[in-house]
Amino acid sequence: MNFFTKTLLGLAACLFTLSTLHSANITIVESQSIHPLHKMDIQWQDIATNLGHNATVVPQSFLTDLNNLNNTDILVVSSGLIDIPAASQQVIIDFVAAGGNLYLQAEYLLDLPGNQTFSGLVNTLGGEFSWEGETSGNLDPMMISGELANNLNPVSSISYYWYGTHGVGSDNIKPFLQFDNKNWGFIYCPIEITAGKVITTSDQDWIRTLDNPALMENILSYLANYNAVDAAPAVTISMTTSSPCEDALTYTFVAEVENSPLSPYNLQWLINGQIVPNATASTFITDAIAEGDVVECRLQMDAECAAFETLSNPILIATVEPLEAPLLSIIADATDICENQEVQFTTDLSTGDALNFSFQWLLNGNSINGANNATFTTSGLNNNDIISCQLNYDNDCDNGLEMVSNNITINVLPTLTPAVTITADQTQICEGDMVTFTANGTDLGTNPVYQWQIDGQNVGDNAPFFTTNTLSAGQNINCNITIEQNLCTTTNEAFSNPLSIEVMPVFQPSINLAASATEICQGESITFTATGDFGSNPTFVWQVDGQTIGNNSNTFTTTTLTNGQQVSCTLNVNNTCATQNSVTTPAIDITVLDGMTPTLLVQASHTQFCYGEEVTFLASGSGHGTSPSYEWFIDGEPQGESLPIFTTSYLHNGQQVSCEVISSSACAMGNATASNIIEVEVTEIEVEVLELAYEHCGNSDGFIEIEAFGGQAPYTYEWMNGTTDSFIDGLAQGKVSVTVTDATGCTGLGQIEMNNLEAPEVSAIETVDAACAGDRGYAAIFLLDSVTTYNYEWTNAEGTVLSQAHQVDHLPVGTYQVVVSNQYGCSTTQEVIIEQTSDLNVTLNADTEINLGESLELDALVNTNEAVTYNWIANQDISCVDCANPTVTPTQSTVYQVEVTNELGCTAIADITVKVGKQRDLFIPNAFTPNNDGNNDTFTVFAGDNVRSIKSMRIFDRWGAELFSQINFQPNQETEGWNGNYRGRVMDTGVYVYAIEVEYIDGSVELHKGDVSLLGK
């Protein structure tokens, strides 16, 4: 019998595989940035290094980029207190999702960064977790369970677990730390197969104090021995029968596991979905099966915190069919080959019911020694050789069967070596000329492909010739030929000889003509110059009015031209590639001028007028040229006007106006031509002041009397206030104007400045202040007008007249007034203040701050070399009260004041504020080693000058028993500290609690509590 199977269903799942890692790359995020004594990162590094791993401590910024973790197998976030922003949390999540393993430190508060990062990681990668509460104090003993209790070292508990948080999670979160029926540390297995493992504990002091290094080793070993895999294990089953040719009812099924995990797994055979008792081996033999039954195998295994299960393909027991003979055919990757070409022959086999089959390849019907595989490769075939393959096989009922495949006949082709050369129909051309290249070759086959190139750049079509008119000098032409792949050539390409064509540039002759001038005077020399592109060996032919003149040169000079003649030049060239042989310039017209003498006439719009009236003068004449230059004169003085018209309103009677012109005509005779002179008659009216009196003290009592002359009487007057007489009064300070008109209507303007004779004007006041006390003051007033006689009156604040001179002395401190008046009764009043002054001044240091216990020297500086006395006022320690530089040592912020007195009794005061900082210069070690090696053998207190004494120091064990007590001793004395002994013996390595009272020099007492580790007896 023969049975066939049908695949009904396929399942896949994911699993982690366990493998031993000899060395892992471990990245540790630093912890000492939170506190210099938080050296969890160093503890992890030491443990990892001792285990043979590569461990590196990195800053927190390392978590900002996932690429920084490319070579990291295990990431250790060593502090639960460091800030882990959202971007860094995402880098941690991505690292675990990509298969990285993580130790994440949590801490004693629910909302600290380490705790929140663990919760967020679980919520992102699958599962549920929540922190439930916080507990303070030492959680002793913290029990260890699961694989972390024994995977490398046997460990059962942590004796120092200082504060912590507990939580609960889903099935893929396994607790391994227990205290008081709560869970304080966890192993998390993400749902995805590609993700890594995560371990967290909610206290870092057990790591900081190195309380249980064995558990730290177990954690690193556990993480180092787990790798995420890319595919889950799968199981596939196949079926045979014990005797298919007989009417047998015994069937054999074999299970094969793909991606087999290293951890243990279980197999269970199923028939129609029901478990077959005791059928758990990889081979399953049964006779309890019938047509239509479905056989499957289930693979199960348990991971640390996740279970895995998958089913095999199902096999359906179907109807018995007759045996099927095998079918064998062969194919070759080539049948037309070249000499010694390698050919591969491949079988195409439909096995049918064939069993134990094998192959034997045949050459021309003879067996080929060693050719027994499904493929056969050879390179030694000859023309018309025949290859076939014989199949030897058994089936369920017969043995020693054979069959032969189809035949393949080989055609061996001759070997060819292609070659090509190129030629050109001409080898010297002008730029732009057409040239044709032809390729001739041998052994090129039937369909060669031509590729023409110019300087390595492909051009042309697939043809044995190439025509172009774009070549330039120095370019190389070649042709590459590609031979068809099925030809037996020694190479598939043929490269021609390079061919270079001499390309001469096209020459475009050009000529331009310029003249040194186009307008000249008769007999003047003029030079013509030809420029352009002449090529080599040019000739020049010059023409005047079409008649050849001059020599073979690119310049032509003459003095014989007449008005209207035209000059041109013809260029003749001798160049093979020239576009034309002769070029003639356009003719240049020449103007020849005769000599001339310019004329100039000046005319005025009118010559008789009133002063201030506008008059215009116009210059005209001949021979001025196109751009003449004019200069106007009044009484021979130039006016700076250069136009032929001149207008002014400021001429006086009898003045003369004339003009000169400089012609722009090249042929003008002489330099400058003068005009006629025009003399003007101007009526001018002048005003003379006969009498004037200024205003006095702002009383508007000024007056003016005037007289007019010039022009023609009678005169009329008009003042600015409407007065029409030659006399005006009642004038105040300011400008006064009057208009005088004569009988002909000409006017004159008079302006007079009216001043105000004001009150006396002070130029300076001198004062001398009273020194310290008394009547040593002095004051004096000085006026701008030192000639005029003034009246003075000095009075004090009570109105008493003290002096009628310009100065007053013997003044005590106070305010005084002086009134100064002149002969017109105008007066001015000034106030003078006499102050009490002292030449004595004292300064101190700037306000400052010192630390408790420090001293400061005060420095009183006075501005005199005279003898002075000092008096310091202070209620804090001061070295002296009558010196200039006392030293102070305050225990609290204090104001120090000094008063300085000189021999005259004058005093000066200054003060300084000295603040006292409460910085405590105190250091209490966190560990000591009482092994009598002379280094760190005792536990004591170290302090600076601001500590007065240690009032008491008490040491307790973890259960509260007092082990040591000392009172009233000085800091920095190691002999006064605890040597680790209790009742005559050194205590065990561990963590102990201290309570220390410290008295500072300001009288305050502070209590310091903490723990200290006793290390290495």
What's the short version?
By secondary structure, the chain is mainly beta.
Topology:
Elements: E1 17-18, E2 25-29, H1 40-50, E3 54-58, E4 74-77, H2 86-97, E5 101-105, H3 113-125, E6 129-138, E7 142-144, E8 157-158, E9 162-169, E10 173-179, E11 182-188, E12 198-201, H4 205-208, H5 213-224, E13 226-227, E14 234-241, E15 251-258, E16 266-271, E17 274-275, E18 283-286, E19 294-302, E20 307-311, E21 315-316, E22 327-332, E23 336-338, E24 343-350, E25 355-363, E26 366-367, E27 375-378, E28 386-394, E29 401-404, E30 408-409, E31 411-413, E32 419-424, E33 428-430, E34 435-442, E35 449-454, E36 457-459, E37 465-468, E38 476-482, E39 493-495, E40 499-500, E41 502-504, E42 512-515, E43 519-521, E44 526-531, E45 539-544, E46 547-549, E47 555-558, E48 566-572, E49 582-584, E50 588-589, E51 591-593, E52 601-604, E53 608-610, E54 615-620, E55 629-634, E56 637-638, E57 645-648, E58 656-662, E59 673-674, E60 678-679, E61 681-683, E62 686-693, E63 695-696, E64 702-709, E65 716-719, E66 727-731, E67 734-741, E68 747-754, E69 756-757, E70 762-768, E71 770-771, E72 777-783, E73 791-795, E74 801-803, E75 807-811, ...
Parallel strand pairs: 2-3, 2-4, 4-5, 5-12, 23-31, 33-41, 43-51, 53-61, 63-69, 71-78, 80-86, 88-95
Antiparallel strand pairs: 1-13, 6-9, 7-8, 7-10, 10-11, 11-12, 14-15, 15-18, 16-17, 16-19, 19-20, 19-21, 22-24, 24-27, 25-26, 25-28, 28-29, 28-30, 32-34, 34-37, 35-36, 35-38, 38-39, 38-40, 42-44, 44-47, 45-46, 45-48, 48-49, 48-50, 52-54, 54-57, 55-56, 55-58, 58-59, 58-60, 62-64, 64-66, 65-67, 67-68, ...
